[in-house]
Amino acid sequence: MAYEAVIGLECHIQLRTRSKMFCDCPVEFGAAPNSNVCPVCLGLPGALPKTNRAAIDAALRLGLALGCAVRAESVFARKNYFYPDMPKNYQITQYDRPLCVGGALPLSLDGVTREIALTRIHAEEDTGKSFHPERHGDRRVSRVDFNRAGVPLLELVTEPVLREPAECAAFLTALRRLVRWLDISDGDMEKGQLRCDANVSIRPAGSSGFGVKTELKNLNSIKGVEKGLTAEIARQAGVLAAGGRIEQATLLYDADHDRLAVMRSKEYAHDYRYFPDPDLPALEVDEAWRESARAALPELPWARAARVAERYGVPAYDAAVLCDQRDLADYYEECAAGADGKLASNWLMTEMLRVLKERGWPLAEWRGRVPAGRLRAFLAKVAAKELPGPLAKQVFAWMVDEPGAVEELLARHGVRAQGSADELRPLVRQVIEENPGPVTQYLGGRTATLGFLVGQVMKKSGGQAVPQAVKELLEAELAGRAISGS
Questions:
Q1: Domain spans of the chain?
Q2: pTM (2 decimals)?
Q3: CB atoms near residue 390 (< 10 Å)
Q4: CB burial of residue 207 (10 Å; 0-12, 13-18, 19+)
């Protein structure tokens, strides 16, 4: 029997705030264990939490960007369960009255764009972090670091509308781009700043019911989400094919060994004994606060990509790459202003991004070395065919490490583009004499061979000849030979 998967994601986004969700402890990745803690985030008797306004601002930005409805009044609740990295034995979160409901995230996959419907976005606090000997092998006992306990989180829950593991990977990639674009999170899954739990079931293809779901917990990479879901879908299909039943459970996925393990039987909502937190008043977001957050939203990445494609005449794929990061989109538009948008796109996507990857640089490092105005002047010379291809790449490489305009770089390295007829005519005549076959073909009407002859002249010039000048000289010389009959 053919099956299809039904998948819903629960994404936890760690916010980039200076302090924790309900206390003033700093948020700092890599700090000494248990150094950023206080009575509030440790849940000591008598400690009273207070909601972090900056975290709620971030939640509003994300919710409004995704078209969610924002509740005028939402409520924090206590989610009760025991785990060693939960210092209070409950988590402050939101349950039946979350801050944001509905909305959708636009997603493009294989050239098709669709909107992935969301159930809710709510604010909560993070737990601490456990370090177990069986995972790391460098200690005899488990240890707990409470520095992360109380760090602000947003939990974004999708509707069960995803069908393929690849869709889920694309969703997480789009979500990571958005939270970085809105400047609310770094979205680094390796540092735990974006985490994902996935609920998955399978059903006969074409049916509308739901099967028994399982949950994959704490998937910590986009590739791990895709691989984990692929493994779990295959496992469920195998169980059903063997005449077994799917048991509702929580599983862990070991990406290193492509292995699933049951963590515990799946809890239900009533197991957590939610109730409103008596220490926190209802969170009230009035219209002025909501509209202030809406006014502060930047142009959203999918809207900007569409505008960039239309304004600068670049393909949708190029626009999506250039709008992957907000500062990259800004830099591209500065470079493309008054220039050939496709030419700018080509150089940024092929050459600049290659340099950034090879050297491990952030875009800020590149911009400091090659401001947009400097690159724009370089592109103008390339567009005017004053810099032939090989020489243009050499000049570009010099620009990365050396100051100065194009003319200064050429002079410093004792190189200049050969464009004058007096410089190029001897090379053109030499190529004509050395290649009688292609010349005869050209004179006989096979004009495509002209490209070969241009290439030979470029080779003799060491890549410094201007191709357009070479082409014009060749055409003139060959026309003269055709008239003379020689």
A1: 3-292, 301-386, 421-484
A2: 0.84
A3: 15
A4: exposed
